[in-house]
Amino acid sequence: MNKNSFPTALTIAGTDPSGGAGIMADLKSFQARQVYGMAAVTSVVAQNTKGVRLIQNVDLEMLEAQLACVFEDIPPLALKTGMIPNVEMMRIIRKYVDGLVPYVMDPVMVATSGDHLIDAQARDQFKAELMPVATLVTPNLSEAEYLVGFSIESETDVEKAAQFVLNEMGPKAVIIKGGHFGETAKDYLYIKGKKLVTFESPRYDTPNTHGTGCTFSAVITAELAKGKSLVEAVGIGKDFITKAIKENPGLGKGHGPVNHMVIV
Q1: Is 177 annotated in the active site?
Q2: DSSP string of the chain?
Q3: Could you give all domains of the chain from N- to C-terminal order, each with its CATH number?
Q4: Is 209 one of the catalytic residues?
Q5: What class of enzyme is it (predicted)?
Q6: Is there a catalytic annotation at residue 212?
Q7: What is the pLDDT of residue 112?
Q8: By the number of CB atoms within 10 A of the CB, which of 54, 144, 146, 167 ranks highest?
């Protein structure tokens, strides 16, 4: 536990030199929520709003050294993971996330552009290595379908998928994002042993959604670092990402970034 009262949060993820996703988005989001942000890099990713050009994973010794440096000096009060490209990295990270502080897992598999970010074995091992120790897992619909192995085409399917994740994979909670079952954007939060909470917002027709998953999970992590409950943290995250999409800066030639400077 951090001996200081100032909230601290850590992101463990890949980079984005164009600033819209990955640790760049996470650190901006932490800052926007008045939380001191730290980052351990898993992969250097050459990407922009049009797609991913090149990925270079850091070696395992470097990843472990980064994590050791953070935890021995400024322990985070909450942390999140994003892009973790291989199983060996997951096993290193698990030692640092296992029950120590609230842990938000964004199961990043594919970029907004459609480019794959992690190998097939890593996609399968999410379930065994990290999900059992997660406080919250934040898949979108396509990620949830991959995790559970069946199509999600209705709210009944959402509930079935969420219960499968909770019961078979072991996280404390799961939020399935991006329900397209009406005129609004719905996210469904299931907490083990508690009632479903639904978060609803207007749906904005825009291509500028680069880094939405990173940003949403980072804001939740920041709020957990400040001591908010899971429902409160997710609610703030939903309000933040909705406004960030609505007020996106219109940058880039592809799927542009959201606005990380909004105030909610």
Answers
A1: yes
A2: --SSSS-EEEEEEE--TTSSSHHHHHHHHHHHTT-EEEEEEEEEEEEETTEEEEEEEPPHHHHHHHHHHHHHHS--SEEEE----SHHHHHHHHHHHSSSS-EEE----B-TTS-B-S-HHHHHHHHHHTGGG-SEE--BHHHHHHHHTS---SHHHHHHHHHHHHHHH--SEEEEEEE-SSSEEEEEEEETTS--EEEEEE----S--BTHHHHHHHHHHHHHHTT--HHHHHHHHHHHHHHHHHT----SSSS-B--TT---
A3: 8-247 (3.40.1190.20)
A4: yes
A5: transferase
A6: yes
A7: 65
A8: 144
